[in-house]
Amino acid sequence: MASRLETLTTVLQASLGDLLVSAAIALGELTVVVKAENLLTVAEKLRDSPELKFEQLIDLCGMDYSAFGRVDGDDVAWNGQRFAVVYHLLSISYNCRLRVRVFAAEDDFPVVASVIGIWPSANWYEREAFDLYGIMFTGHPDLRRLLTDYGFIGHPFRKDFPLSGNVEMRYDPDKQRVIYQPVTIEPREITPRIIREAQYGNSEGFRKG
Question: Domain extents for the chain?
Answer without folding.
Answer: 4-147
